[in-house]
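ugh ok fine here u go
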Amino acid sequence: MAIDEFIKLLDQGVTSWNAWRESHPDIRGIDLSEIQLENVNLSGIDFSMVNLRSAKMRDVNLTSANLRGADLSMANLKGIDLSDVNLSSAQLSMICLSEANLSQANLSGADLRGSNLRLAKLDRADLSTAKLNMSSLNGVSMIGAVLIGANLSRAELREANLAGTDFSRANLSEADLSHSNLNVSSLVGTDLIGATLVDIDLSESNLCRANLIGANLYRANLCGCDLIGADLRGTNCNEAYFIGADLSRADLNRADFTSANLSKTNFTGANTETTDFQDAILPDVW
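structure:
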C-alpha cells in the first residue's frame, strides 16, 4: 500500500485502523515516514513496527498507543501526549520529545541516543536497558521511573527531578546531573565515573558499590546515603554534606573532602590513607 492509502485508512479513525491491523497480522513494512499529523486523536492506535522516521506530529493524542518496535528516528513529537504508550524496543534516536508527556510509558530497551527530552514528563516510566547516550534531559521530571541497566553516558540531566528513580546498574559515566533532585533514589552498582554532580540532592539514596571515580560532588547533599563499598577515588567532595552517611568499606583514596560536613558518618573499614579532610567536619568517633 502507498502512503496515501495508509493515510485514508487513518482518516477513518483508530478503530478502523486497528481492525485492519488485526485482520492483516502478516503485513510488514508499513511506511509512514515523514508523515505530518496535526490535531488528531490517535489514542490506543496500533503503530507497532511502523516506520515513522522523520514524522512530524503536533497536538496529537497518542495515549496508550502501541508503538512497540516502531521507528521514530528523527521524528518531531514535541509536546504531545504519549502517556501509557508502549515504545519498548522502539528506534527513537535523534527524536524530539521535548515537553512531551511520557508518564508511565514503556520505553524498555528503546534506542534514544542523541534524543531531545528537555522538560519532558517521564514519571513512573520504564526505561530499563534503554539507550540514552548523549541525550538531553535537562529539566525532565522522572519521578519514580525505572532505569535499571540503562545507558546514559554523557547525557545531560541538569535541574531534573529524579526523586525515587531506580538507576541500579545504569551507566551514568560523564553525565551531567548538576542541580538535580535524586532524593531517595537507587544507584546500586551504578557507573558514575567522571559524572558532574554539582549541588545535587542524593539524600537518603542507595549508592552501595557505586563507582564514583573522578566524579564532581561539589556542594552535593549525600546526607543519610548508603555508600557501602562505593569507589570514590579522586572524587571532588568539596563542601559536600555527608551527615549520617555510611561510607564503610568505601575507597576514598585521593578524594577531596575539603570543608565537607561528615558528622555522624560511618568510616568503618574505609580506605582513607590519602584522603584530604582539610577543614572538614568529622564524626566524633573516628
